């Protein structure tokens, strides 16, 4: 069976080959032909923009996606891409430095203690691990854990927002998510990966970010150095990256995971959903 990945990669390669102009010139005095190759730098991106909607349409039908934005993240066209794929976005929450910085751990622990829902077991680890467990229990739905009540969700959301740990970009969440998409910036890799792992205990998680997030202590660099079930996608600010994000979420919904993109540590450009 021909896969989505095969279509995208092979068609992009064909388009690039066709878009490369090769001009061979010879002169009577020169010893050899002169070869000039030129390729429009945005040609492949334009091609993926044209075929991408067909590849992702319906891939996430019925899924509810929570978007969590790092303090320095730019979501770009991710929301539109998710909606094109048939998903609904439960909320976009911007994580604040007060949540992710190590120097504010005591504040985070105070908030967690004040809003902890009954029946939610806090994991061993630091304040961010505990915060991730509480947020996951109230903002996502899963067969692998206890679902908090609507009142618990409102109390947790209110406590975290009032303490300046995150803020909503749009409406507050009114439904629990079935998938989570973290959008990374170029920094804060360790904190974001810790939160992603906490949510992955309950639902499928993808961390997407720019190519720069694969370097140093970027979120994708940290994740690609770990052995876990969280997927990641670099180049999420490109047309191919947007397609890969949707397909990685669909793969997570089916129980799979992987590292996708063109940066160091990526296993493939896009998931194989054949």
In short:
The protein is α/β, with parallel strands linked by helices.
Please tell me what the overall shape is.
Answer: globular
Order of helices and strands: HEEHEHEHHHHEEHEHEHE
Q: Cα-atom Rg, whole angstroms?
A: 21 Å
Through-space gap between termini: 6 Å
Number of helices: 10
Largest sheet: 7 strands, mixed
Average pLDDT score: 82
Structural class: alpha/beta
Relative strand content: 15-25%
Helix content: 25-40%
Unreliable segments of 5+ consecutive residues: 9-40
Q: How many beta-strand elements?
A: 9
Order of adjacent strands in the largest pleated sheet = 5-4-3-6-7-8-9
What does this structure look like?
- This protein is an alpha/beta fold and 274 residues long.
- Helix content is 40%, strand content 16%.
- The protein has ten helices and nine strands.
- The strands form two sheets. A seven-stranded mixed sheet has the order 5-4-3-6-7-8-9, with helices on both faces. It has a two-stranded antiparallel ribbon with strand order 1-2.
- Helix 6 (127-139) packs across helix 8 (189-199).
- The N and C termini lie close together (6 Å).
């Amino acid at each position: 069976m021909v896969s989505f990945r095969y279509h995208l990669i092979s068609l992009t390669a064909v388009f690039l080959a066709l878009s490369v102009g090769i001009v061979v010139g010879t002169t009577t005095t020169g010893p050899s032909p002169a070869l000039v190759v030129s390729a429009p730098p945005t040609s492949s991106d334009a091609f993926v923009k044209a075929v991408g909607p067909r590849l992702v349409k319906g891939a996430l039908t019925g899924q509810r996606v929570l978007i969590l934005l790092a303090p320095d993240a730019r979501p770009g066209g991710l929301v539109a891409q998710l909606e094109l794929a048939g998903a609904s976005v439960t909320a976009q929450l911007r994580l604040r430095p007060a949540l992710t910085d190590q120097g504010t751990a005591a504040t985070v622990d105070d908030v967690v203690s004040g809003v902890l829902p009954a029946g939610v077991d806090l994991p061993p680890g630091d304040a961010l691990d505990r915060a991730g467990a509480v947020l996951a229990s109230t903002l996502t739905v899963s067969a692998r854990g206890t679902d908090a009540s609507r009142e618990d969700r409102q109390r947790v959301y209110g406590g975290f927002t009032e303490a300046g740990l995150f803020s909503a970009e749009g409406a507050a969440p009114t439904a629990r998510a079935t998938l989570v998409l973290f959008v990374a910036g170029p920094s804060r890799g360790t904190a974001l990966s810790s939160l992603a792992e906490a949510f992955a205990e309950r639902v499928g998680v993808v961390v997407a970010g720019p190519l720069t997030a694969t370097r140093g202590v970027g979120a994708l660099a940290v994740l690609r150095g770990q052995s876990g079930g969280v997927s990641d996608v670099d180049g999420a600010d490109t047309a191919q990256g947007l397609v890969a994000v949707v397909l990685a979420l669909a793969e997570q919904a089916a129980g799979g995971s992987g590292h996708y993109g063109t940066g160091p540590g990526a296993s493939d450009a896009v998931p194989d959903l054949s």
